[in-house]
Amino acid sequence: xxxxxxxxxxxDETTGWDWIxxxxxxxxxxxxxxxxxxxxxxxxxxxxxxxxxxxxxxxxVLFPWLASSLVPRTSAVLAPFVGWLVVVVGFGxxxxxxxxxxxxxxxxxxxxxxxxxxxxGALAGTMTVVLASPPKRVNR
Length: 140
What we know:
This protein has helices at residues 16-38, 51-70, 74-93, 109-132, and strands at residues 43-44, 47-48. By secondary structure, it is mostly helical. The protein has one domain (26-132). It has a two-stranded antiparallel sheet.
């Protein structure tokens, strides 16, 4: 007679609800990218208030890490970061026919906040995806 196994399971125990959670986190990543892009030109009096950089760092660490806890796969960890990246790069690169852009790139102090959001968020997201992704399985 064999009893229940107490060792680690080799089967994938993720459910559809877990993937719905990852999809919601991907949407949250995209909304965070939109909010951060809109907060780049935030001023506190006459000083630039770079809260968008902090939000980019936190959101690109938090959302992929939460996705990793739901579904331990690299694709799930990558999804919120890709949602953020598409929105932020879309706003940073694509201009409207009138020449308007969301992320300013003109010389000045605001340019550094823009670069801080783009580079800081991309670096934080990339490092989180690398560190939170599960190790590859070795078949023996």
